[in-house]
Design brief:
3 strands; 6 helices; Arc Repressor Mutant, subunit A; mainly alpha; 149 residues
Length: 149
């Protein structure tokens, strides 16, 4: 099993979830909502569809998640003045505070899991992961995953 990228991705995802779980719970957040806070914090004024595209989620799911963040007092939907069908997303002051803490949490976790890598190795790892991710985004819907030659 360790010959597969999926094994390492799963192990890292479980480790991040364990690392972040206690901090997320104190704010009433789940690991899924975590990424919405990060995305909106880095992209204030983004739309629901931009958020859906980036997080690879359907619009209905994004709408429900944003509704939950609004209930918690962390995000606000503002109607676009030119096109009333569109909304822009921003974090509240409380959401901004949580964003900063969660951003620090991600940085700290990255530092912990990459502690045995040099700065160059870390950059190489990130570049390789970008290439792998981009290759998956380029594939057509319904096509088969990459196979070994």
């Amino acid at each position: 099993m360790p010959d597969f990228l999926a094994y390492y991705i799963t192990a890292l995802r479980k480790d991040l979830n364990a690392y972040s779980d206690a901090r997320l719970k104190q704010y009433g957040l789940t690991d899924g909502l975590f990424y919405y806070i990060i995305y909106i914090g880095k992209n204030p004024g983004c739309s629901l569809s931009e958020t859906a595209r980036f997080l690879k989620a359907d619009n209905g799911h994004v709408t429900r998640c944003i509704g939950k963040l609004e209930q918690l007092g962390y995000a606000v939907r503002t109607r676009d003045t030119a096109d009333h069908r569109h909304y822009h997303l921003t974090l509240t002051a409380q959401g901004e505070t949580i964003f900063k803490e969660l951003h620090t949490l991600l940085y700290d976790w990255d530092q912990a899991v990459c502690k045995n890598l040099s700065d160059i190795q870390r950059e190489q790892l990130l570049e390789l992961l970008r290439l792998v991710t981009d290759s998956r985004e380029d594939r057509k819907e319904g096509s088969e995953p990459c196979t070994r030659p």
